[in-house]
Structure formats: C-alpha cells, structure tokens
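Retry 2 of 3 after timeout on previous attempt. Resubmitting structure tokens to design endpoint.
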C-alpha cells in the first residue's frame, strides 16, 4: 500500500466519533461572521447595523483576488459590524446577526436531488471557476486558501491531475470520513467539476486505510467514472499534507520553494471542499455551513455536526453533552496542528474542521528536558528539516539563520514535537520563527 517517503509518525488515532452519522446542529441565537475566514486579504463588510439578511445574503465582499466573500448562514437582523474575538485569539472585523426564523435566498436550490455533470453540459471551465469564486469556497481541510486561485495555475504551469485529499490524518477528527459516507455521489461530481475546471482527465481520491467503509463505498461509487481512481493509503501522519499526499498518490515530490505543488502537475482539493464545490456550482449555494467534529475523551457525545458558520463553539459543545468538568484545554482543530482557544464564545468559520476537548490529564504538558541530540525529530520531519535547530534559532531570535535553514518550508505538522523524548516545545518555537521570517520576507518583497 502506498504512502509518502520522508519522515512521518503514528500518533494514537482516537477517532471517537467515527461511524457517527452527520447530525444537524441547531440554529444559533446569534451568529458572528469574521471577515478573516481565509488566507489572503480579508473580506470587506457590505452590510450595516439594522439590515435584514437571509441565509445566503452577502455580508462581506472579497478584498482582492486572493480573498473570498462571506455570506450569512442565518436570517435575521445585523446587530453589529465591529471587531470581535475569533478563533485566532485576535479581535478582528466581524458582522453579527441576531437570528430570526430561517429564511433562505430563493436562488439557492435546497432540494436533495443529485445533479450530475452530464445534466449540465453548458458548464465550461470558466463558469465553474467563477461560481466557486462567487460562492466563497476556500480549502476546508484547514488551509482556507481561496479555491478559485488554486484552480487558476500561474502561467507556464500545467495541471495533469486532481487529487482529492480524503486522508483526514489528524487524530480525533472524523468530519471528512462522515461526509464521504453521507455524500459520496456529490463528492465525485465535485471532483469532476474541479477536473473540468482545470482541464484534466485524471482524478484520484486518497483515503487512509483506517477508513475501510469509506474506501469501499467511494470505490463502488467511482466505478461509474473510469477517469477517477480511489487510492487506499497506508496510515501515516501527516499524509494529509499537500506535498505528502502528492508523493503518496502519484509518487512525485514537490521541489524546494519557490516551487509549488502544481509543479508536479497535481492540484489537491480537500474532500469537504469538493462537496462545497458541488453545492456551489450545482445548487447555487454559497459556503454557509460545514461538518465539524466535536470530540474528546470526557465528552458525553462525540459527534459530527453539520453546523452553520458563525455558530459559537460553546453551543456546539452544549449539543454534544456540555463541557466536561475535567476540561483542561479546548483545541480548535486536531491535537497535532490545532491551536488552543482563548474563549468558547468564538464562532466557527470556513476552516473549522474540529473542536477537541482535552481533559486535565491530556492537557498537561510533560516537563521539558534538555535536548539529548537523538535526532528523532529529524527522522520524523516529513519536510526533511532539522527541527531541533529551527527551534533553537527561533528561541535565540536569529531570524537570518532560521531563513537559511528553510523554516518557511515547515508545514507545522507537529511530528517533531510529538516524537521528542525530551518533550521540547519545538512546534511553538518553530511557529514563532516561521511567522516572523515570513513577515520579514514579505516586507523585503514589498520594498
Ligand atoms: S512541524 Fe515543521 S519542523 Fe516539525 S516535523 Fe513538521 S514540518 Fe518538520
Ligand atoms: S527529538 Fe528532541 S531531544 Fe532529540 S534531537 Fe530533537 S529536540 Fe533534541
């Protein structure tokens, strides 16, 4: 069975909510829509206090080409256009809507009927990309890069295939898994739409072999599309990294920066993004909801919830049995790449794939010992970096050295920290170093 070649680790899976069908979350009383839900320029609010909105009403228009519009996921009255705390821990511009009823824009097709690509022969590549852009679709695996940008390769770069990232290698998370079991046909049509948008005739769906039911179902459904191949993958973290997935599925390595994944001929899209693309193009539905895993060992009902964007995390936790008494920390995302939340009142966004409630015992960090030069972190790094060195130069604030040692290639997977016998907070330092160096590079380019 295939997998990627360099590094990788095997954390405990803890997929507590695997097999839980998707459950629709209740409507929030108030929804908060951050204008910063994607990589790139923030959206600009186009509504004002007092405006009435419906589900699907535009709240914020894209702030540039690398940006995405934001739509309301609820109906009601705009009560605030002001800064609000979001999951990043920052107070940033957001639109707050007090919910009244559940009225949808008429342009959205809410039927469950499957629309196949053959039903819409008039859809050409340009129209598909335009609809994706208009719907505000971004990478839903957590990267939140605007999808229409990824579907427009830079001049001279040619796409040869599309790979659907259905790996979901983060421990605990099962949102993508549940989506494949619930909507395999829509995901396949979504993949066909992406293939048509970038003009390729080969599509792959990479799924790790801890999801045998999804592999079986997707393989069965894909039989009607000879151009699509389901590729079962050997379990290894972080196989969901774009570069690792390309290596695992088609055996090509992305060259060092400034090369891009497209240099291998592959365009990667998350499985949730493919579903959102289907809904955007075939149902005229902007990105207003998503599946999120709410989980944790002490949580009463670990679940996969279909929740409206803007719903406060606290409400989602309540719907899964409430915050356990022994809660030590709540993470936005999974345990490897996720970040601790400062408040549970922050809203879910386009990139919210999971909410992990760690108990006191799990949340407690082990005592940090000195580095013993064992090089385990080097062996685990899927990017071939030297994590102990990157962490050290970041701790010393030696940004030149950090840049020279290629810190910007780090994918923040946490494999180094996971494997370190001295429990050194490698990822914390590397994240600090990476964001600082990226800032330095950006201001150098801007000069
Ligand atoms: S977090 Fe960065 S340095 Fe550490 S293993 Fe992952 S890619 Fe390598
Ligand atoms: S794994 Fe930890 S102890 Fe070993 S070299 Fe890396 S930082 Fe040092």
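Retry 2 succeeded. Sequence:
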């Amino acid at each position: 069975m295939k997998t990627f070649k360099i590094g990788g680790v095997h954390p405990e899976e803890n997929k507590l909510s695997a097999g839980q069908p998707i459950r629709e979350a209740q409507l929030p009383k108030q929804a908060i829509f951050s204008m910063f839900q994607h990589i790139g320029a923030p959206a600009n609010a186009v509504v004002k206090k007092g405006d009435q909105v419906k589900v699907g009403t535009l709240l914020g228009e894209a702030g540039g080409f690398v940006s995405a519009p934001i739509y309301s996921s609820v109906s009601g009255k705009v009560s605030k256009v002001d800064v609000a705390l979001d999951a990043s821990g920052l107070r940033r511009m957001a639109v707050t809507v007090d919910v009244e009823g559940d009225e949808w824009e008429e342009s959205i097709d809410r039927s469950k009927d499957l629309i196949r690509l053959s039903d819409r022969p008039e859809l050409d590549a340009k129209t598909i990309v335009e609809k994706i852009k208009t719907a505000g679709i971004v990478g839903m695996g957590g990267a939140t890069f605007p999808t229409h940008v990824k579907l427009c390769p830079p001049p001279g770069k040619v796409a040869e295939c599309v790979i659907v990232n259905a790996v979901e290698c983060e421990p605990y998370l099962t949102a993508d898994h549940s989506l494949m079991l619930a909507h395999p046909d829509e995901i396949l049509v979504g993949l066909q739409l992406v293939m048509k948008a970038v003009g390729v005739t080969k599509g792959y769906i990479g799924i790790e072999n801890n999801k045998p039911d999804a592999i079986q179902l997707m393989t069965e459904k894909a039989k009607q599309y000879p151009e699509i191949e389901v590729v079962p993958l050997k379990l290894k973290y972080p196989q969901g990294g774009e570069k690792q997935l390309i290596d695992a599925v088609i055996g090509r390595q992305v060259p060092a920066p400034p090369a891009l994944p497209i240099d291998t001929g592959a365009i990667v899209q998350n499985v949730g993004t493919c579903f959102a693309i289907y809904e955007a193009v075939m149902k005229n539905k902007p990105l207003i909801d998503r599946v999120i895993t709410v989980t944790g060992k002490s949580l009463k009902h670990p679940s996969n919830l279909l929740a409206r964007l803007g719903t406060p995390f606290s409400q989602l936790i309540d719907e899964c049995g409430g915050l356990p008494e022994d809660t030590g920390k709540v993470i936005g995302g999974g345990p490897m790449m996720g970040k601790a939340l400062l408040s549970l009142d922050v809203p879910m966004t386009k990139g919210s794939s999971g909410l992990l409630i760690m108990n006191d015992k799990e949340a407690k960090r082990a005592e940090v010992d000195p580095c013993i030069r064992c090089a385990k972190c080097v062996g685990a790094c899927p990017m071939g970096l030297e994590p102990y060195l990157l962490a050290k130069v970041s701790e010393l604030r030696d940004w030149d050295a950090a840049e020279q040692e290629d810190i910007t290639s780090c994918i923040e997977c946490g494999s180094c920290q996971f494997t370190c016998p001295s429990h050194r907070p490698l990822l914390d330092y590397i994240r600090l170093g990476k964001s600082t160096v990226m800032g330095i590079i950006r201001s150098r380019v801007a000069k």
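Attempt log closed. The two ends are 48 Å apart (CA to CA).
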